[in-house]
Amino acid sequence: MAIILGIESSCDETSASICIDGEIRSNIIASQAIHAKYGGVVPELASRAHQQNIIPTVDQAILQAKVSKKDIDAVAFTRGPGLLGALLVGTSFAKSFALAMDVPLIEVNHMQAHILAHFIDQPKPAFPFLCLTVSGGHTQIVLVKDYFEMELLGETLDDAAGEAFDKTAKILNLPYPGGPLIDKHAKDGDPTAFKLPEPQIPELNFSFSGLKTAILYLVQAEIKKNPNFLAERMDDLCASVQDRIVSILLNKLKKAAKQTGVKDIAIAGGVSANSGLRSSLLAMGEKYKWNVFIPKFEYCTDNAAMIAIAGYHKFLKKDFVGQDISPLARMHV
Ligand code: KG4
Ligand code: ZN
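Above: the input record for the complex with zinc ion. Below: its predicted structure, written as C-alpha coordinates.
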Protein backbone atom coordinates (compact mmCIF):
# COMPACT_ATOMS: atom_id res chain seq x y z
CA MET A 1 0.00 0.00 0.00
CA ALA A 2 1.24 3.52 -0.84
CA ILE A 3 -0.03 6.58 1.02
CA ILE A 4 1.05 9.89 -0.52
CA LEU A 5 0.63 13.35 0.98
CA GLY A 6 0.34 16.01 -1.75
CA ILE A 7 1.04 19.72 -1.13
CA GLU A 8 0.14 22.61 -3.46
CA SER A 9 1.15 26.25 -2.82
CA SER A 10 2.07 27.74 -6.20
CA CYS A 11 -0.36 30.66 -6.27
CA ASP A 12 -3.24 31.65 -3.98
CA GLU A 13 -4.57 28.25 -2.92
CA THR A 14 -3.03 26.30 -0.04
CA SER A 15 -4.02 22.69 -0.57
CA ALA A 16 -3.25 19.25 0.87
CA SER A 17 -4.43 15.84 -0.26
CA ILE A 18 -4.04 12.21 0.68
CA CYS A 19 -3.84 9.60 -2.09
CA ILE A 20 -3.97 5.90 -1.19
CA ASP A 21 -2.92 3.50 -3.96
CA GLY A 22 -3.96 5.99 -6.64
CA GLU A 23 -7.27 6.89 -5.00
CA ILE A 24 -7.87 10.40 -3.65
CA ARG A 25 -9.16 10.24 -0.06
CA SER A 26 -9.07 13.96 0.77
CA ASN A 27 -8.46 17.24 -1.04
CA ILE A 28 -8.56 20.25 1.29
CA ILE A 29 -8.28 23.70 -0.31
CA ALA A 30 -7.82 26.93 1.67
CA SER A 31 -8.50 29.84 -0.70
CA GLN A 32 -7.13 33.29 -0.01
CA ALA A 33 -9.92 35.88 -0.14
CA ILE A 34 -7.46 38.68 0.74
CA HIS A 35 -6.44 39.22 -2.93
CA ALA A 36 -9.92 40.21 -4.17
CA LYS A 37 -9.66 43.80 -2.96
CA TYR A 38 -6.34 44.28 -4.79
CA GLY A 39 -7.71 43.07 -8.13
CA GLY A 40 -5.13 40.26 -8.40
CA VAL A 41 -2.83 37.99 -6.41
CA VAL A 42 -0.33 39.95 -4.24
CA PRO A 43 2.69 37.61 -3.97
CA GLU A 44 3.81 38.76 -0.51
CA LEU A 45 0.32 38.32 0.93
CA ALA A 46 0.01 34.90 -0.72
CA SER A 47 3.22 33.68 0.95
CA ARG A 48 2.03 34.85 4.37
CA ALA A 49 -1.38 33.23 3.93
CA HIS A 50 0.26 29.94 2.86
CA GLN A 51 2.40 30.09 6.00
CA GLN A 52 -0.72 30.46 8.15
CA ASN A 53 -2.81 27.88 6.29
CA ILE A 54 -0.42 25.07 5.55
CA ILE A 55 -0.41 23.17 8.85
CA PRO A 56 -4.19 23.29 9.48
CA THR A 57 -4.79 22.30 5.82
CA VAL A 58 -2.46 19.30 6.05
CA ASP A 59 -3.95 18.28 9.43
CA GLN A 60 -7.45 18.38 7.93
CA ALA A 61 -6.41 16.35 4.85
CA ILE A 62 -4.90 13.64 7.09
CA LEU A 63 -7.93 13.64 9.39
CA GLN A 64 -10.45 13.42 6.55
CA ALA A 65 -8.56 10.54 4.91
CA LYS A 66 -8.60 8.70 8.27
CA VAL A 67 -4.87 7.98 8.18
CA SER A 68 -2.15 8.73 10.67
CA LYS A 69 0.93 10.87 9.94
CA LYS A 70 3.21 7.91 10.56
CA ASP A 71 1.43 5.86 7.86
CA ILE A 72 2.40 8.30 5.08
CA ASP A 73 4.92 6.75 2.66
CA ALA A 74 6.01 9.87 0.75
CA VAL A 75 5.36 13.59 0.44
CA ALA A 76 4.86 15.19 -2.98
CA PHE A 77 4.98 18.96 -3.45
CA THR A 78 4.64 21.53 -6.24
CA ARG A 79 8.17 22.60 -7.18
CA GLY A 80 6.96 25.09 -9.83
CA PRO A 81 5.99 26.97 -11.91
CA GLY A 82 4.44 29.64 -9.71
CA LEU A 83 5.17 32.49 -7.32
CA LEU A 84 8.55 31.80 -5.73
CA GLY A 85 7.63 32.94 -2.21
CA ALA A 86 4.44 30.87 -2.31
CA LEU A 87 6.30 27.80 -3.63
CA LEU A 88 8.92 28.17 -0.87
CA VAL A 89 6.26 27.63 1.81
CA GLY A 90 5.03 24.32 0.35
CA THR A 91 8.56 23.18 -0.51
CA SER A 92 9.92 23.95 2.97
CA PHE A 93 6.96 22.24 4.61
CA ALA A 94 7.37 19.13 2.44
CA LYS A 95 11.13 18.96 3.12
CA SER A 96 10.59 19.30 6.88
CA PHE A 97 7.85 16.67 6.84
CA ALA A 98 10.01 14.24 4.85
CA LEU A 99 12.95 14.81 7.20
CA ALA A 100 10.90 14.47 10.39
CA MET A 101 8.97 11.38 9.26
CA ASP A 102 11.93 9.86 7.36
CA VAL A 103 9.98 9.39 4.12
CA PRO A 104 10.96 10.15 0.49
CA LEU A 105 10.33 13.53 -1.11
CA ILE A 106 8.77 13.87 -4.59
CA GLU A 107 8.85 17.03 -6.72
CA VAL A 108 5.87 17.72 -8.99
CA ASN A 109 5.55 20.09 -11.94
CA HIS A 110 2.30 22.04 -11.47
CA MET A 111 1.47 22.11 -15.20
CA GLN A 112 2.01 18.35 -15.54
CA ALA A 113 -0.14 17.87 -12.45
CA HIS A 114 -3.07 19.81 -13.99
CA ILE A 115 -2.93 17.28 -16.85
CA LEU A 116 -2.46 14.26 -14.57
CA ALA A 117 -5.65 15.24 -12.72
CA HIS A 118 -7.29 13.17 -15.48
CA PHE A 119 -5.91 10.05 -13.78
CA ILE A 120 -7.85 10.65 -10.56
CA ASP A 121 -11.24 9.36 -11.72
CA GLN A 122 -12.64 7.16 -14.47
CA PRO A 123 -12.72 7.37 -17.44
CA LYS A 124 -8.99 7.91 -17.86
CA PRO A 125 -7.54 9.03 -21.21
CA ALA A 126 -5.26 6.66 -23.13
CA PHE A 127 -1.75 7.72 -24.22
CA PRO A 128 -1.10 9.60 -26.40
CA PHE A 129 -3.71 12.28 -25.82
CA LEU A 130 -3.90 16.02 -26.40
CA CYS A 131 -4.48 18.37 -23.49
CA LEU A 132 -5.43 22.03 -23.66
CA THR A 133 -4.13 23.40 -20.35
CA VAL A 134 -5.69 26.75 -19.58
CA SER A 135 -5.01 28.52 -16.30
CA GLY A 136 -4.33 31.95 -14.85
CA GLY A 137 -0.69 31.73 -15.85
CA HIS A 138 -0.57 29.35 -18.81
CA THR A 139 -2.25 28.41 -22.08
CA GLN A 140 -0.75 25.35 -23.69
CA ILE A 141 -1.56 22.54 -26.08
CA VAL A 142 0.37 19.49 -24.90
CA LEU A 143 0.83 16.08 -26.52
CA VAL A 144 0.83 13.70 -23.54
CA LYS A 145 2.80 10.58 -24.49
CA ASP A 146 3.13 9.11 -21.00
CA TYR A 147 2.68 10.23 -17.38
CA PHE A 148 5.83 12.35 -17.42
CA GLU A 149 6.61 12.51 -21.14
CA MET A 150 4.88 15.56 -22.53
CA GLU A 151 5.55 17.64 -25.65
CA LEU A 152 4.54 21.29 -25.83
CA LEU A 153 2.88 21.87 -29.23
CA GLY A 154 1.76 25.45 -28.73
CA GLU A 155 1.42 28.15 -26.09
CA THR A 156 0.40 31.74 -25.58
CA LEU A 157 2.72 34.47 -26.79
CA ASP A 158 1.36 36.99 -24.28
CA ASP A 159 -1.55 36.70 -21.81
CA ALA A 160 -2.90 33.35 -20.61
CA ALA A 161 -6.57 32.47 -21.19
CA GLY A 162 -7.33 32.94 -17.48
CA GLU A 163 -5.62 36.33 -17.60
CA ALA A 164 -7.78 37.25 -20.61
CA PHE A 165 -10.85 36.48 -18.50
CA ASP A 166 -9.51 38.27 -15.41
CA LYS A 167 -8.24 41.37 -17.24
CA THR A 168 -11.51 41.68 -19.18
CA ALA A 169 -13.41 41.39 -15.92
CA LYS A 170 -11.34 44.29 -14.56
CA ILE A 171 -12.35 46.42 -17.57
CA LEU A 172 -15.97 45.47 -16.84
CA ASN A 173 -15.54 46.50 -13.17
CA LEU A 174 -15.95 42.93 -11.91
CA PRO A 175 -13.83 41.79 -8.92
CA TYR A 176 -10.90 39.34 -9.06
CA PRO A 177 -10.90 36.51 -10.08
CA GLY A 178 -13.20 37.54 -12.89
CA GLY A 179 -13.30 34.28 -14.87
CA PRO A 180 -16.10 32.63 -12.86
CA LEU A 181 -18.12 35.91 -12.86
CA ILE A 182 -17.87 36.32 -16.63
CA ASP A 183 -19.01 32.70 -16.91
CA LYS A 184 -22.03 33.44 -14.67
CA HIS A 185 -23.10 36.60 -16.56
CA ALA A 186 -22.53 34.90 -19.93
CA LYS A 187 -25.26 32.37 -19.15
CA ASP A 188 -27.90 35.13 -19.54
CA GLY A 189 -26.29 36.97 -22.46
CA ASP A 190 -26.22 36.87 -26.25
CA PRO A 191 -22.79 35.69 -27.51
CA THR A 192 -23.36 37.40 -30.89
CA ALA A 193 -24.17 40.82 -29.37
CA PHE A 194 -20.65 42.25 -29.80
CA LYS A 195 -18.17 41.40 -32.55
CA LEU A 196 -14.68 40.79 -31.17
CA PRO A 197 -11.56 39.95 -33.24
CA GLU A 198 -9.98 36.51 -33.57
CA PRO A 199 -6.19 36.99 -33.71
CA GLN A 200 -4.32 35.39 -36.61
CA ILE A 201 -1.43 33.69 -34.81
CA PRO A 202 0.74 31.11 -36.60
CA GLU A 203 1.04 27.43 -35.73
CA LEU A 204 -0.60 26.25 -32.50
CA ASN A 205 0.21 29.39 -30.52
CA PHE A 206 -2.21 31.83 -28.93
CA SER A 207 -2.45 35.55 -28.24
CA PHE A 208 -5.01 37.31 -26.07
CA SER A 209 -3.61 40.81 -25.61
CA GLY A 210 -5.26 42.19 -28.79
CA LEU A 211 -8.63 40.92 -27.63
CA LYS A 212 -8.20 42.68 -24.28
CA THR A 213 -7.40 45.97 -26.06
CA ALA A 214 -10.41 45.57 -28.40
CA ILE A 215 -12.69 45.10 -25.39
CA LEU A 216 -11.20 48.15 -23.65
CA TYR A 217 -11.79 50.38 -26.71
CA LEU A 218 -15.30 49.03 -27.21
CA VAL A 219 -16.25 49.66 -23.58
CA GLN A 220 -14.70 53.16 -23.56
CA ALA A 221 -16.54 54.16 -26.77
CA GLU A 222 -19.89 52.80 -25.57
CA ILE A 223 -19.62 54.42 -22.10
CA LYS A 224 -19.12 57.80 -23.83
CA LYS A 225 -22.48 57.31 -25.57
CA ASN A 226 -24.25 55.79 -22.56
CA PRO A 227 -22.80 56.02 -19.03
CA ASN A 228 -24.98 53.06 -17.97
CA PHE A 229 -23.59 50.85 -20.74
CA LEU A 230 -21.83 48.36 -18.44
CA ALA A 231 -24.81 47.84 -16.17
CA GLU A 232 -27.26 47.51 -19.06
CA ARG A 233 -25.18 45.20 -21.29
CA MET A 234 -23.07 43.19 -18.80
CA ASP A 235 -24.58 39.81 -19.72
CA ASP A 236 -24.21 40.36 -23.49
CA LEU A 237 -20.65 41.64 -23.05
CA CYS A 238 -19.65 38.64 -20.93
CA ALA A 239 -21.30 36.20 -23.34
CA SER A 240 -19.50 37.78 -26.33
CA VAL A 241 -16.10 37.82 -24.60
CA GLN A 242 -16.45 34.24 -23.40
CA ASP A 243 -17.58 33.07 -26.81
CA ARG A 244 -14.52 34.62 -28.46
CA ILE A 245 -12.02 33.25 -25.90
CA VAL A 246 -13.57 29.79 -26.25
CA SER A 247 -13.48 29.91 -30.07
CA ILE A 248 -9.80 30.99 -30.05
CA LEU A 249 -8.97 28.04 -27.79
CA LEU A 250 -11.03 25.43 -29.60
CA ASN A 251 -9.98 26.44 -33.12
CA LYS A 252 -6.35 25.76 -32.15
CA LEU A 253 -7.27 22.52 -30.42
CA LYS A 254 -9.08 21.41 -33.59
CA LYS A 255 -5.95 22.24 -35.61
CA ALA A 256 -3.77 20.23 -33.16
CA ALA A 257 -6.10 17.22 -33.40
CA LYS A 258 -5.96 17.38 -37.20
CA GLN A 259 -2.16 17.71 -37.26
CA THR A 260 -1.49 14.85 -34.84
CA GLY A 261 -4.41 12.56 -35.71
CA VAL A 262 -5.00 12.12 -31.96
CA LYS A 263 -8.65 11.68 -30.97
CA ASP A 264 -8.40 11.56 -27.16
CA ILE A 265 -8.77 15.21 -26.20
CA ALA A 266 -8.63 16.66 -22.68
CA ILE A 267 -8.80 20.07 -21.04
CA ALA A 268 -7.21 21.05 -17.74
CA GLY A 269 -6.50 24.05 -15.51
CA GLY A 270 -8.70 26.70 -13.92
CA VAL A 271 -10.31 27.88 -17.16
CA SER A 272 -11.49 24.32 -17.90
CA ALA A 273 -14.13 25.06 -15.24
CA ASN A 274 -15.71 27.48 -17.76
CA SER A 275 -19.17 26.27 -18.75
CA GLY A 276 -18.93 27.70 -22.28
CA LEU A 277 -15.63 25.92 -22.92
CA ARG A 278 -16.96 22.66 -21.49
CA SER A 279 -20.15 22.64 -23.58
CA SER A 280 -18.47 23.80 -26.81
CA LEU A 281 -15.76 21.15 -26.41
CA LEU A 282 -18.38 18.45 -25.92
CA ALA A 283 -20.19 19.61 -29.07
CA MET A 284 -16.95 19.71 -31.05
CA GLY A 285 -16.04 16.25 -29.75
CA GLU A 286 -19.29 14.87 -31.02
CA LYS A 287 -18.79 16.47 -34.42
CA TYR A 288 -15.23 15.18 -34.88
CA LYS A 289 -15.72 11.84 -33.06
CA TRP A 290 -13.24 12.68 -30.29
CA ASN A 291 -13.14 11.06 -26.86
CA VAL A 292 -13.42 14.14 -24.69
CA PHE A 293 -12.08 14.30 -21.10
CA ILE A 294 -13.17 17.12 -18.81
CA PRO A 295 -12.05 17.16 -15.16
CA LYS A 296 -14.46 17.46 -12.25
CA PHE A 297 -14.79 21.09 -11.11
CA GLU A 298 -12.74 20.55 -7.94
CA TYR A 299 -9.81 19.25 -10.01
CA CYS A 300 -9.84 22.13 -12.55
CA THR A 301 -8.59 24.97 -10.36
CA ASP A 302 -5.51 24.59 -8.17
CA ASN A 303 -5.70 21.63 -5.81
CA ALA A 304 -3.37 19.14 -4.11
CA ALA A 305 -5.21 16.04 -5.36
CA MET A 306 -3.51 16.52 -8.72
CA ILE A 307 -0.14 16.84 -6.93
CA ALA A 308 -0.82 13.69 -4.91
CA ILE A 309 -1.82 11.63 -7.98
CA ALA A 310 1.26 12.85 -9.90
CA GLY A 311 3.31 12.01 -6.78
CA TYR A 312 1.81 8.53 -6.66
CA HIS A 313 2.92 7.79 -10.24
CA LYS A 314 6.44 9.05 -9.42
CA PHE A 315 6.43 6.96 -6.21
CA LEU A 316 5.79 3.84 -8.30
CA LYS A 317 8.94 4.66 -10.29
CA LYS A 318 10.89 5.56 -7.09
CA ASP A 319 11.49 8.99 -8.62
CA PHE A 320 12.56 10.85 -5.46
CA VAL A 321 14.53 14.05 -4.79
CA GLY A 322 16.95 15.05 -2.04
CA GLN A 323 16.81 17.69 0.68
CA ASP A 324 18.85 20.06 -1.53
CA ILE A 325 15.85 20.62 -3.82
CA SER A 326 14.56 24.19 -4.25
CA PRO A 327 11.45 25.58 -5.98
CA LEU A 328 11.50 27.08 -9.48
CA ALA A 329 9.29 29.99 -10.59
CA ARG A 330 9.56 28.76 -14.19
CA MET A 331 9.29 25.14 -15.31
CA HIS A 332 8.29 23.54 -18.62
CA VAL A 333 5.88 20.62 -18.99
O1 KG4 B 1 -5.39 26.73 -12.55
P1 KG4 B 1 -5.80 27.89 -11.75
O2 KG4 B 1 -6.64 27.67 -10.53
O3 KG4 B 1 -4.54 28.67 -11.22
C1 KG4 B 1 -3.39 28.84 -11.97
O4 KG4 B 1 -2.55 27.90 -11.97
O5 KG4 B 1 -3.31 29.91 -12.63
O6 KG4 B 1 -6.52 28.93 -12.72
C2 KG4 B 1 -7.05 30.14 -12.27
C3 KG4 B 1 -7.69 30.85 -13.45
C4 KG4 B 1 -8.13 32.29 -13.13
O7 KG4 B 1 -7.68 33.13 -14.18
C5 KG4 B 1 -9.65 32.19 -13.11
O8 KG4 B 1 -10.29 33.39 -13.49
C6 KG4 B 1 -9.90 31.10 -14.12
O9 KG4 B 1 -8.89 30.15 -13.86
N1 KG4 B 1 -11.22 30.48 -13.96
C7 KG4 B 1 -12.22 30.61 -14.87
C8 KG4 B 1 -13.35 29.93 -14.36
N2 KG4 B 1 -13.01 29.40 -13.13
C9 KG4 B 1 -11.70 29.74 -12.92
N3 KG4 B 1 -12.23 31.23 -16.06
C10 KG4 B 1 -13.38 31.19 -16.76
N4 KG4 B 1 -14.52 30.57 -16.32
C11 KG4 B 1 -14.54 29.93 -15.14
N5 KG4 B 1 -15.64 29.31 -14.73
ZN1 ZN C 1 -2.86 25.94 -11.77
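Notes for the reader.
The chain has two domains: 3-115+302-316, 123-295.
The CA atoms of residues 171 and 220 lie 9 Å apart.
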